[in-house]
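To: structure subgroup
Subject: Chain for Friday's discussion

All,

I'm putting the inputs and outputs inline so they're searchable in the archive.
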Amino acid sequence: MKFAEWIESQENDIQNPPKVLWITGMGSTGFGPKQLALQGYEVKHIGTTTNRYAAYLGRFKRFPMMGSLFGGHADRLGKSHLAVNAQKHDMEKDQDFQPDVVVGSSQGGAVTMEIAHQYPKAKFVLIAPAWKIFGADPSHLPADTIIVHGKKDIQVPPVDSQILQKKFGFKVLLNNFGHTVPFQFIKQAIDMQLPHRSPVPQFEQFHRVGKDGHRYWGRVGGGIIFTDGEKILLLQRADEGDYAGYWCIPGGKSKKGELPIDTARRESREECGKNEGQRFGHFDTKDGLHHFHTYLYSVPKPFDVMLSNEHTAFRWVPIDDVEEMQLHPKFKENWLAYSRAIRKNYPTTAF
C-alpha cells in the first residue's frame, strides 16, 4: 500500500496508536521501548532497581543443597525486592495512561506479575520472566498471557516458563536464542495481543516527511560531534533501526520538556558512555517543524567507547576520510559546514 492510499483509507477511521507499558529488567538500556516508540506505538517505560544479591540467591536456591541452606532467606529477599519495584511502578505510573499491552522483561516480568491486577483490561507479554528467582505470583495474570523465552537462556531457564504454560495455560513462544530476546520477536508477541488495533504502517513510523523527502522521528533532537582536531567519533547504526549500517554521531530525539543540549549529552552518555569535552560550536538544522541540534565538542584525545545495542561499532575517523564513510544522509549533507567549524577551532592542525 502506498502512503497516499493509506492516508485516504484512514480519513474516516483514524486509530489511536496502541499503548504499551514496558517494565524492563536490571541493567536495561531501554532499547526495546525506544524502538517500539519509533515504530508508531505510544510507550511508557518503567525501569527496575538492581539487587544482584537477591538475583544470585534466587538462582542458586533451585539447587537442593543451596535451597536447604538459604532458600528461606532468598525468598524473603526476593519478595522484598519485588515490593520495592512494585512501589516504584506505583510512583511512576501515569494514571491517565491505560495500556493495551503490558510488557515485562526478565526481572520486569516478575514485577509485572505483582502489579498485573492494576490493569484488568490490558493484555500481557512477558519476556523470560524471572518469577521463580524473585518469588513472584503469576496468578494475577490473565490466561491469554504470552511469554517469549530463549531455549539457550541460562540466566532464567526456559523450564520456568514451561511451568507457567502447564499450570496456567499461558502461550509460550520458544526460540533459538539466549537471555537477550531479539526485538522483532517481542514486537511480534505484542502485535499478537493487538488483533483489532494494528500500529500504523512502516511508512508512518515517523513524525513527518521533510521537504527533501527524509522521514523524521520527532520535532527536536540533539547530537554531539566529538573531535580532537584530527579525528571525529562516528558510530555505526545497528540493524534494528533506520539507516542500518550507516555511520553517524551519538544523538537522538528529545524527551518531553528536555533541552536539545541535554538531549545531546544524555544520548552521548547512553550510546558511547561519554559526554565529556569542551563545547565550541552549535548547528541548528531545520526542516519545517523539525530541528536537530548538533554540538561540537573538543576532547584532548580519542577516548574508548562503551557501545549500547543501538550501534555495532565505533571509529575515530580522520577528518579528511569522513566523506569516504557511508554516512547518515543528513549528517553527510551538513558535514562541510561541520568540518569548516572544526578547522576554524583548530587553525594550526594540518588536515
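Points worth raising on Friday:
Residues 6-14, 198-216 have pLDDT under 50 and may be disordered.
DSSP finds ten helices and 15 strands in the chain.

D.
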